[in-house]
Amino acid sequence: METVRSADETTIAFDRHGGGAPLVLVGGVFQHRALDATSERLATLLAPHATVLVYDRRGRGDSGDRAPYAVAREVDDLAALIAAAGGAAALCGLSAGGALALEAVAAGLPVTRLVVWEPPFTPAGLTPPDHAALAPCYRALVDAGRRDAAVALFLTAAVGLSPGCVRMLRCAPHWQALEAVAHTLAYDAAVLGNGRVPAERLAGIACETLVLAGATSPGAVRAAAAEVAAALPRGRLETLEGQSHAFDPLALAPVVARFLAA
Predict the structure, then answer these.
(1) For 207-231, what is the HEC assignment?
(2) Taking CA 176 as the corner, what is the angle to CA 193 and CA 160, rounded to the nearest 5 degrees?
(3) Are 231 and 202 contacting, i.e. CB atoms less than 8 angstroms apart?
(4) Taking the complete model, does pTM exceed 0.90, yes or no?
(5) What is the model's pLDDT at position 73?
(6) In this structure, what is the dihedral angle of CA atoms 8, 14, 20, 24, given to the nearest 10 degrees?
(7) Closest CA to 113 of 217, 238, 211
(8) CB 3.0-4.6 Å disulfide test: which of 17, 83, 199, 224 passes with 121?
(9) Do the beta carbons of residue 101 and residue 210 sit within 8 Å?
(10) Per-residue pLDDT in tens (0 to 9) along the chain, 262 residues
């Protein structure tokens, strides 16, 4: 494990894999190194092609935190990681991490290339979750010691799972790990904003961007990915056959590697 200090002195923990041009993986909701075997596997598969940095976003795992939260502070965290990687890097953002990666590039970070996997925006014609209203609810439940309820609220109100599905997930061995980072649900709510594709913000992104979606993901997810790609001046969309939101790293890694090498 290595660490860097962000602009507000928060410690950000990361692992470094492989060699070559740097690539930073940006995790989504709940994701951090101790919980997220998928990103670790993806980093291992990409290691022959790049120097891959896998980090714990602030408030998770071995990384520190500092109140009050602001999306700009997470952008600063990425700036510190990119500096540690040599001053410029590609980013690969997964789910909500894709939304954060897009914001980091729009904010002017030195990003060479960008990959985003199914950023969880809501496409035109559908009503997005009210992230602004959900954020204080997450905080209130966590402050009251009801982390389980905060996780359940996210899964029902933001993801759209049924209460019955959530009851089954409560029995899963990783549920307590989700509860441990429930305070960061409000962070991702801030990253996602109003839930719409931020087309005007994306129009200012100059780097080449690959937007990926799974062919078996819901139509709304694929439509949102298409909207993101269309809003980017140098964006293109690729759909991976046989993949859903919970992608197989063996399917994603060669696509990312080809894009980075092009």
Answers:
(1) CCEEEEEECCCCHHHHHHHHHHHHH
(2) 40
(3) yes
(4) yes
(5) 98
(6) -60
(7) 211
(8) 224
(9) no
(10) 999 999 999 999 999 999 899 999 999 999 999 888 899 999 999 999 999 999 999 999 999 999 999 999 999 999 999 999 999 999 999 999 999 999 999 999 999 999 999 999 999 999 999 999 999 999 999 999 999 999 999 999 999 999 999 999 999 889 999 999 999 999 999 999 999 999 999 999 999 999 999 999 999 999 999 999 999 999 999 999 999 999 999 999 999 999 999 8
- Cβ atoms of 195 and 99 within 8 Å: the answer is no
Question: How many Cβ atoms sit within 10 Å of the Cβ of residue 163?
Answer: 9
- In angstroms, what CA-CA distances link 138 with 70, 183, 191, 252? 16, 7, 14, 32
- Give every CB contact of residue 251 below 8 A, 6+ residues apart in sequence: 240, 242, 243
Question: Which domains does the chain carry?
Answer: 2-125+196-261 (3.40.50.1820), 131-189 (no CATH)
- 52: helix, coil or strand? strand
- Parallel/antiparallel/unpaired status of strands 2-5 and 22-26: unpaired
Q: How far apart are CA 149 and CA 185, in angstroms?
A: 12
**Residue type (1 letter), 145:** G
Tokens of 222: 């694929």
Using CB atoms within 10 Å of the CB of residue 242, give its burial: 0 to 12 exposed, 13 to 18 middle, 19+ buried. exposed
Task: Say if CB 69 and CB 186 are below 8 A apart.
Answer: yes
- Provide the pLDDT for residue 34: 84
Pairing of strands 51-55, 11-18: antiparallel
* Structure tokens belonging to residue 145: 């010691």
